[in-house]
Amino acid sequence: APAPVENIPVDIEGMTVLYSDDDLVAVDKPPGVAAHATVGWHGPTVLGGLAAAGFRISTSGIHERQGIVHRLDVGTSGVMVVALSERAYTVLKRAFKERTVEKRYHALVQGHPDPSSGTIDAPIGRHRGNDWKFAVVEGGRASV
């Protein structure tokens, strides 16, 4: 059997705690950091950064994903919320699953798009050649 994956406690340059209380912590995740440990990932994780900062996560779920209620891709920066208590884990997990959490994404674009603003409405799913990537695919999940 493969060795279990671990979130190694390590200080993460650029990861800032924006808010914390007894139930949750919100961090500004820099690019290059995974949400949690996974097979094949050997870089820093949000959970490892929180462990190094002294946060204790006490939730159910798979050990290496404890407290994770949503994720941002490794290459994406932004606010991530992590549950510290079982109560917060249950409430936040449900809120993200039922899509009652308002999320906003901003993208950097090179060039001069025309029009300068708009909505991309295309189905998103796993990339056929690289299942760790997402792409516009027939039969994917609605993006809007």
Characterize the structure shown.
The protein is α+β, with helices and mostly antiparallel strands and 144 residues long. The chain has a single domain, classed as Pseudouridine synthase (2-Layer Sandwich), CATH 3.30.2350. Helix content is 13%, strand content 16%. It contains two helices and five strands, in the order E-E-H-E-H-E-E. The strands form two sheets. It has a three-stranded antiparallel β-sheet. A two-stranded antiparallel sheet has the order 4-5. Strand 1 and strand 2 (24-29) form a beta hairpin. The longest helix has 12 residues, at 86-97. The N and C termini lie far apart (40 Å).
Describe the secondary-structure layout.
Elements lengths: L15 E5 L3 E6 L16 H7 L25 E6 L2 H12 L26 E3 L7 E3 L8
Domain unit count? 1
Poorly predicted regions: none
Secondary-structure element string: EEHEHEE
Q: Structural class of the secondary structure composition?
A: alpha+beta
Strand order of the largest sheet: 1-2-3
Residue fraction in strands:
15-25%
Quickly describe the structure:
The protein has 144 residues and is of the alpha+beta class. It is built from two helices and five strands.
Q: Can you tag this structure with a few keywords?
A:
globular; 144 residues; Pseudouridine synthase; 16% strand; alpha+beta; 5 strands; two-stranded antiparallel sheet
